[in-house]
Amino acid sequence: MLFVYCDTVCFAVKGNLFCWGRSEEGQTTIPTQHQSAVWDNVWTGYDLTCGTTAAAPASLICWGAANKPLLQAPPDSPSNAPWTKVAIGRSHACGLAGGSLSCWGEDTNSLISFSQQSAVQQASFLDVCSAFEHSCVVRTDNRLICWGYSGLGRTVIPREIRSVNWAQVSCGGSHTCGMDTRGYAACWGHSAHGQLELLDPRLVQIADIRAEKLRLWDSLHSGFHHVCGHRRLREDEVQCDDLSNTVPTPNHACWGDDSFGAIVSPHHPIQYKELAIQACFKMQFKQITSGGYHSCGITIDDNVGNNKLICWGFTDDGQLEPITPEAGAALLPNILISLFLAVVTSVVLHM
Question: Looking at the whole model, is its pTM more than 0.85?
Answer without folding.
Answer: yes
